[in-house]
Design goal:
Radius of gyration: 61 Å
Structural class: alpha+beta
Number of helices: 4
CATH topology of one domain: Immunoglobulin-like
Distance between the termini: 162 Å
Shape: elongated
Helix content: 10-25%
Strand order of the largest sheet: 5-8-11-10
CATH architecture of one domain: Sandwich
Largest sheet: 4 strands, antiparallel
Number of strands: 12
CATH class of one domain: Mainly Beta
Length: 326
């Protein structure tokens, strides 16, 4: 095979020329921004990789140190804020010395800061008055040897009093009295009252008394009230009269016959207070003259009448007792 002539002017290659490889640069050199170092022969010399690694390590180290500084700064700020908050809520306490106690006993003097606490480790005795301008909180029991005057008393739990005097006592819930209850004045009960034992009272005034059991009394039953009204009937005769005494519950009717008495009613009685229904009327004749009369009773819710079915004797006086119950 024929070799090309290097001296041929028509050849593509120049005579006596040699192809020198171009100066190369690695990817790491391009990344680091280093120019290749050319030697005398024209070849490029690669930079030192240790130096490049050291420079890169310095950048990371500086970033790490910066993060440490920021974290320490934040921690210091938080600690300072927490200390300021704790100082705002904590109240320092102060112990009284003997000199301070003597000053308190002999003069009106302030001891300590208003935000400080006064702690008395042993017993304290105040021979004069003690004024507390704000609330008093007692963690243990309270014993009062003398009188206690207060404008209002609110007891949320149990309270024991040997003697309690109150100008106005209001109970919103139940009250249990194990001993004797003595009331010097009147008692007003708006609701119902239940007594499991005996009730003793010299006088009981009530507008309506309802008994679910037997009614027992060791003394008389005295009935009072307004006197009913009356009107004379035709059985009295000419010039005859009648009168009444007592109340709606019990009383007496006196009859004075005139001339020529007839049949019908001697007297018509009207109750001062009418009954809700027709009551029971019990009539008893007084004396033999009344017993000889054939009498009978007419009754209604508004009153009753004492009548006769046969004429009574003329010019006689006799009477009847009555008892009315609803």
């Amino acid at each position: 095979m024929e070799q090309p002539n290097k001296n041929d002017p028509n050849s593509l290659e120049a005579p006596d020329t040699s192809v020198t490889p171009a100066s190369t640069q690695t990817v790491e050199d391009n990344l680091e921004g280093h120019e290749p170092v050319k030697t005398a022969g024209g070849s490029a010399k690669k930079p030192n990789k240790l130096k490049a690694l050291f420079k890169r390590f310095n950048v990371y180290f500086l970033m790490f140190v910066l993060l440490i500084i920021v974290a320490i700064t934040i921690a210091v700020i938080l600690a300072l804020n927490a200390r300021d908050t704790g100082n705002a809520t904590v109240i320092d306490s102060q112990t009284l010395s003997d000199d301070s106690l003597k000053q308190l006993a002999n003069s009106d003097i302030g001891v300590g800061d208003p935000k400080q606490l006064l702690t008395v480790q042993s017993n304290a005795i105040f021979t004069g008055k003690m004024l507390v301008r704000q609330n008093v909180e007692i963690g243990g029991g309270l014993t009062v040897g003398g009188d206690m005057n207060i404008s209002a008393l609110n007891v949320s739990g149990k309270g024991t009093f040997d003697q309690l005097q109150a100008n106005d006592l209001t109970l919103t819930r139940n009250a249990t009295i194990h001993g004797q209850l003595a009331v010097q004045n009147s008692v007003t009960v708006n609701g119902s009252g239940t007594f499991s034992g005996a009730v003793t009272a010299p006088t009981i005034n009530t507008s309506n008394l309802q008994l679910n059991g037997d009614f027992t009394t060791a003394r008389h039953i005295v009935v009072t009230g307004s006197t009913p009204s009356k009107s004379d009937g035709n059985a009295l005769g000419g010039g005859g009269t009648s009168s009444i005494s007592g109340s709606d519950t019990a009383g007496s009717v006196t009859v004075n016959t005139g001339s020529n008495p007839g049949t019908g009613c001697f007297a018509n009685i009207t109750f001062a207070n009418r009954f809700t229904a027709v009551p029971k009327v019990l009539v008893t004749p007084i004396g033999s003259a009344a017993g000889s009369v054939d009498y009978y009773v007419n009754r209604s819710a508004t009153g009753f009448s004492i009548c006769t079915s046969s004429p009574a004797a003329s010019g006689q006086s006799f009477g009847f007792d009555f008892f009315v119950i609803g």
